Each structure stands twice: as C-alpha cells, then as structure tokens.
C-alpha cells in the first residue's frame, strides 16, 4: 500500500487529474484505503500549490516583480481591500480552472500576498476539491470495479467539465451568459466547426479522388506557400501592394521583440503613431489582432507574442467588407465570387440598464454574450447614458462578434475592375479574399475609397454564408462551389509547365497543428 500511496502522491506533481483518477481506481480495487488515498492527494496537491507560491516569493525577493510593468500595476491595484478580495477570489477559483493556478500562485507570492491567508485558502480549496472528486468516485464505485479503464476516462472528463463550469457558475454575468448559450444550437452560425463542416469533408475527399491528389489546392496561388491554404504569411501578400496606392495601408513586418525600447525605435523609424494594428504574420480567424493604443498595450503584446508580426496603420474608414476574388489562370478576367458586409454590433443605453443587461436584452448579442462579457468585463456593471451607443466589437472577425451580411448588392463592374488591378499586382494570385475598410457603399461600388486590411489565400471562405438569412443548404452549396473552383484552379496551375509551385506538405501539417493546439492568449481584440 505504501508504494501506491507514494505513486499517487508524486503523481500529483506531474498530472494532478490523472493522479486523482488513479487513486479512485486503486480504492475501488482495494489496493489502497480511502483515507491514505485522500491524504496522498491532499498533501501532494497542497504541497505543489504552496511550492508555486514560495517560488513566487523567491522571485519577488530577487526583485523580479519590479521588472514587469504589468506586475507593478497589478500590485498597485491591490493596495485597497477591493483589490485584495479580487486576488483572494482568483486564488480560490484557480483551483478549479485549468491553466490558471501556475500564474495565479506565482503572482500571489511575487507581490507578497499574506502567507497564512494563502496557506488557509490552500487547505480549504484542496480539501473541497479532493472531497468532491472522491465523492464522485464513490458514487460510481460499482462501475469502476467492472469497467475501470472506461471509468478512469469518465473521471478525467468529469474533472474537465467541473473545471470549465466552476468559473461560469461563480460569476454573476457568466451565469447569465450560460443561461442563453443554448440559443447557439438554433443557428448554424454559432455551431461548433466540426458539426458545420462535417458534410464538406466527404466532398473534398471526392475531389481529391477525382484529381488524384488532396494536395491540388496547395497549387492555387503558386507564389504563396501552399497556396495560402493555411499558415501563409500575410506579408507575402501585402509586400506586393503599391505603397503610393490609396488602397494601401502602411505596414511593415517585425521580428519578435521582447525589448520594448528596440520595438518602439523600429516603429518610430517607420513613422507610426498610436493607435495602430499589431497582428501575427501567420494567423487564422482573428488570432492575435490587436489595436495598440499606448505603450502599455505595446508592452503587453510584445510580452505575449513569440511570432513575427505585422505593424499596420489603423484604418479610419467606417465600413468593413470581405471581397472574395477568383480567376482561372487561363482566363483573361476574374470574378467576385462573394462579398460580405461586416457590421459592428452595438447596444444603446437607456439611462437605467447596466451594460450587461443591455447585451442580454439584444436578441443576437445575448446568443454570444460570453464573448462580449469577456471583452467588456470591466464595464458590465456600468449604466450607459440614455441614447449612448456602446460598440461591442470593433474588429471584423466573426468569432469576435462582428455581424456578417450578404453583400451581393455591392457587386459592380467598377469594383471588379479595381479589385482585379490589385490582384494582378500579386504574381499568380488566383484565389483569395481581400478584407477591406471602405467609406460608404456608393463609393465602394464605384471601386473607390477603400483600404486593404489583409489578403487571404486558398484558405479563404465566402463569409457571406454567415448571414442569418442564409439557409444551411445554401451555405453548404456555396462551400461546395468554392472547393470545386479551388481544385480546378489548383489542377490548372499544377499542370502548367511555366508556373513554379510552392508546395510544402510538412509545413502545412506543422501550421495546422499550431492552429489546433494554439493557446488563445491573444485571440480577443481590445
């Protein structure tokens, strides 16, 4: 039994959830008693928590707290009781929220959170957590005896569910958002991607068989790595735009910078002033797009960014749209496959309701209230004045709350002429979407008064399908047509004797893995 005790005890230092599940399996199979198993988990988890706190104290005594502006600012905010309660609540909640214990406990020690208070919180939270898990284990003890492998997996799933629910249930606004989350099931616009795109997978497989290779789409834009299907460099598109063109937003590419002074020097040299845009050179679905308004914003971004980035002028034009351009290599002219108007959702104050309640009263906003609550958490309890307009999103990404509308009415020969001229500046650009800001619908239809924010390649999507008036059948039909054209263009390029390809399947797999396993630290714009 001693061996099992120490296996569980030391196991908590490596994978806490697995150690808890293992302890329950050992109890059910009478390899270890309930009390020894409890003590092994309690002491192992508790010592681990205290160790993180003590490491934070050591870092603080070495003066590391003064080296980080964000830590200094946070420490200053904890001078009053309200701030102290905030950290206390954070310490309690971090016990149940994956990935938060390490930074929370380190910061607690780093800024000098009282030792005995932290010690008592550790005793209470660890005891509650282990008791909760063991109670669940006892409830399914019979099943555990007969199907222990499946039950261990179920216990791990249970732990994950509990840890995801606790922060939502412990916060007033998170509970409100959770009550409305079921509405996402009523519209495919908010479905998990795996469910919406499921019918596309067999069709792409069919096209792969028809053209004898699933790599055909990689050839669609041969100047861009893998055609821009995923992991393409934004700069590889932007660098071809004329700097003097009225459609070009000033931009440059910058390597990862942890030194604020050096980064600020490079940005000043290029003639940028606040505010401006920072975003990863390689990114997907709005990841890492931030409006930088101050030195503090820049410092925080640089601290989190371990990738090459694009520094870009912030467009002041009010409208935003996505224009999907397609041209077969053998064709003289291309076409506008899709236009998406992007609207930035707002709520209007009545002088009585809190911002959070205004969001919940909006038929669409309440569906993704959790997204808006996370972004505007510091203002949810404030009461906007009567008639005051509060903008909920300011970047044109659907996953960040922007509203997408079918912009078919904006298609004109004049707009196609302007887009065609821009597309021709990029060598062998046949398939992709230009995300733009524009002054007004009239001037856009005349092909004028717009600025290019970003250009995407073969991985582009006809985003007008997210218009709430689009049916699921229409959306899938559009995607079928899009993929068919992508394979046709890729095949034509592949068979061309004069166009050199830029296909790197291993690079594609690497970038795909980054998207799947990426931490969303920078995903929400501010």
Written account of the structure:
The protein has 526 residues and is α+β, with helices and mostly antiparallel strands. It has two domains: 2-170, no CATH class; 211-340 and 402-517, 2-Layer Sandwich (D-amino Acid Aminotransferase, Chain A, domain 1). It has helices at 2-14, 16-28, 34-61, 69-77, 81-94, 101-110, 115-139, 141-146, 148-170, 172-180, 193-196, 200-210, 234-238, 260-269, 295-304, 355-361, 369-375, 413-423, 441-445, 472-494, 505-517, and strands spanning 251-254, 276-280, 290-292, 309-313, 319-326, 335-343, 346-348, 389-391, 403-406, 431-438, 450-456. The strands form three sheets. A five-stranded antiparallel β-sheet has the order 9-6-5-10-11. α9 crosses α10.
What is the topology?
Layout: H1 2-14, H2 16-28, H3 34-61, H4 69-77, H5 81-94, H6 101-110, H7 115-139, H8 141-146, H9 148-170, H10 172-180, H11 193-196, H12 200-210, H13 234-238, E1 251-254, H14 260-269, E2 276-280, E3 290-292, H15 295-304, E4 309-313, E5 319-326, E6 335-343, E7 346-348, H16 355-361, H17 369-375, E8 389-391, E9 403-406, H18 413-423, E10 431-438, H19 441-445, E11 450-456, H20 472-494, H21 505-517
Antiparallel strand pairs: 1-4, 2-3, 2-4, 5-6, 5-10, 6-9, 7-8, 10-11
Descriptive tags:
single chain, about 525 residues, alpha+beta, D-amino Acid Aminotransferase, Chain A, domain 1, 2 domains, five-stranded antiparallel β-sheet, four-stranded antiparallel β-sheet, 11 strands
């Amino acid at each position: 039994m001693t061996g099992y005790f120490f296996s569980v005890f030391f196991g908590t230092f490596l994978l806490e959830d697995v150690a808890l599940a293992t302890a329950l399996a050992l109890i059910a199979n009478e390899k270890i008693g309930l009390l020894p198993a409890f003590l092994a988990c309690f002491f192992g988890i508790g010592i681990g928590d205290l160790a993180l706190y003590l490491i934070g104290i050591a870092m603080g005594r070495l003066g590391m707290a003064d080296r980080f502006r964000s830590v200094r600012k946070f420490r200053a905010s904890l001078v009053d009781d309200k701030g102290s309660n905030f950290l206390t609540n954070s310490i309690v909640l971090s016990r149940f929220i994956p990935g938060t214990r390490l930074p929370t406990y380190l910061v607690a020690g780093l800024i000098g959170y009282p030792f005995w208070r932290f010690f008592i919180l550790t005793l209470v939270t660890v005891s509650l957590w282990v008791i909760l898990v063991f109670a669940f284990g006892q409830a399914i003890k019979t099943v555990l005896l007969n199907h222990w492998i499946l039950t261990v997996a179920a216990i791990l799933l249970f732990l994950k569910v509990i840890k995801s629910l606790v922060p939502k249930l412990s916060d007033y606004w998170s509970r409100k958002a959770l009550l409305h989350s079921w509405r996402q099931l009523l519209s495919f616009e908010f479905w998990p991607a795996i469910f919406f795109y499921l019918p596309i997978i067999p069709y792409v497989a069919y096209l792969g068989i028809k053209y004898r290779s699933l790599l055909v789409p990689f050839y669609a834009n041969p100047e861009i790595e893998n055609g821009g299907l995923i992991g393409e460099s934004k700069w590889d598109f932007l660098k071809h735009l004329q700097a003097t063109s009225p459609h070009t937003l000033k931009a440059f590419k910058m390597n990862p910078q942890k030194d604020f002074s050096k980064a600020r020097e490079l940005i000043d040299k290029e003639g940028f002033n606040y505010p401006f845009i920072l975003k990863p050179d390689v990114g997907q679905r709005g990841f890492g797009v931030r409006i930088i308004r101050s030195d503090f914003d820049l410092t925080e971004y640089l601290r989190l960014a371990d990738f090459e980035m694009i520094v870009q002028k912030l467009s002041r034009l009010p409208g935003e749209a996505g224009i999907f351009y397609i041209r077969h290599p053998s064709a003289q002219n291309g076409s506008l496959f899709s236009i998406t108007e992007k609207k930035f959702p707002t709520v209007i104050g009545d002088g009585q309701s809190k911002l959070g309640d205004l969001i919940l009263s909006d038929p669409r906003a309440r569906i993704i209230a959790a997204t808006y609550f996370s972004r505007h958490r510091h203002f949810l309890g404030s009461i906007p004045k009567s008639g005051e307009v509060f903008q909920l999103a300011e970047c044109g990404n659907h996953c960040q709350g922007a509203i997408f509308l079918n912009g078919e009415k904006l298609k004109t020969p004049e707009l196609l002429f302007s887009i065609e001229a821009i597309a021709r500046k990029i060598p062998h650009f046949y398939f992709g979407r230009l995300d733009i800001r524009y002054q007004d619908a009239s001037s856009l239809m005349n092909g004028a008064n717009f600025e290019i924010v970003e250009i995407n390649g073969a991985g582009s999507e006809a985003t007008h399908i997210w218009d709430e008036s689009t049916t699921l059948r229409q959306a899938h039909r559009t995607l079928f047509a899009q993929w068919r054209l992508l394979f046709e263009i890729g095949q034509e390029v592949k068979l061309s004797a004069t166009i050199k390809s830029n296909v790197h399947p291993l690079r594609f797999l690497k970038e795909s893995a980054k998207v799947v396993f990426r931490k969303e630290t920078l995903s929400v714009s501010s």
